[in-house]
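[Q] Does anyone have a clean structure-token version of this?
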Amino acid sequence: MTQLMRIFGIALIVVFGFIAHANAIDIKQVKTQKGIKALLVEDYTLPIIAISVSFKGGATQDPEGKEGTLRLMTALMDEGAGELDSAAFQAKAEELGLEFGFNVSRDTFSGGGRLLRSEREEVFKLLKLAVNEPRFDEDAIERMRDAIRTNIISGQKNPSAIRSKALRESVFGEHPYARSTSGTEKSIDIITREDIIAMNEKIMSRETLTVGVVGAISEAELKLAVDDIFGDLPEKSNITEIAEIKPKLGEEIVIDMPVPNATVSIVYPGIKRDDPDFFAAHLMNHILGGGTFSSRLYSQVREKRGLAYGVSSGIATFDKSAYFAAGTSTRAENRDEAIKIIRQQIEKIATEGVTQEELDKAKLYVSGSYAISNLDTSSKIASVLVALQTQDLGIDYIEKRGKYISEVTLEDVNRMAKKFFSTEPTVVIVGPVVTQ
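[A] Here you go.
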């Protein structure tokens, strides 16, 4: 860790080099002897290697009644492996300057981090242990269980967390997407070590693995490393396919909570990432509420009326579903007015569309901000390399993204606005009940 800190200053200097050459990133397709595919960007500017990996499955694979199993497994991946218990494993990672963490979403189990090239052989041995020989010691399980339980309990007092839970359960019903990735107090308490081992065996396989690497490593070195770390995993996965689901809409959910502010979400149909109209929807959202300071919602709710500090919108995409949501947090007495203005702006964009000037500005921003937001560090680029594969975007996506955006027409954007907002939304409100 200390060695990485020493070269952090140099890293800042080369950040702008990544951005300036975003469209010229040389991505290599790599296939190992054991059939594992990876994307690689070689870069020797710094002696650092960034790795991002992803396995299909995610929290949708949790057994019913034992939600949070994968989340608990994820928390244990650096809590000891092989002959190294938790303290020894983490001390070794610290000694090697390894920065690596694991995460879980509804559709994936992923990991990522950075290492020094000079320590790569020892680091790869450590990662191999974590991937192939996690200990899942009982004391570590209880420690991580307690930490997750604490977060769950904390979330029960958080208006935003309560709103998110109500939203998921309303729009997804009994579908696995309705579940919390962390589980519940009840479910997290009954997960056993055997459940965690079974989840590990279910999720981790070469078939569902995606790898992205950026930095000071050659193609030949990467092939050997990937096979060494992941080559002993089962070839095929055992994940359960989940069904496609259209969000259920048209409800109003009000959860009384004695807090100063009301937290609001207004939910409409969305669009999946692989839809040909995704960029038309993305640009429409940017103009409406995704552009923050430049958006219509920000202008009308924050700047002109001072109803809220922030207001925004976005498209939530999943492998099997998607929805659009606009939201804000506002003083309880301003709640109804804020909702009214948001819905008026949504109706206006659906019926009147956007202007060519708005679209041109949105295209300029969305095109230019991508490199700054996604390609300014090696770790982010590694994550993008994984996304190119998991979302089937193509190895030339970074180069072609600007073209995809430029080809979106005013008619495309206005058609998507009509399509999104022709349905009565679900409205979720958490806060004090307002009496008129």
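[Q] Thanks! Anything notable?
[A] The chain has two domains: 2-230, 252-431.
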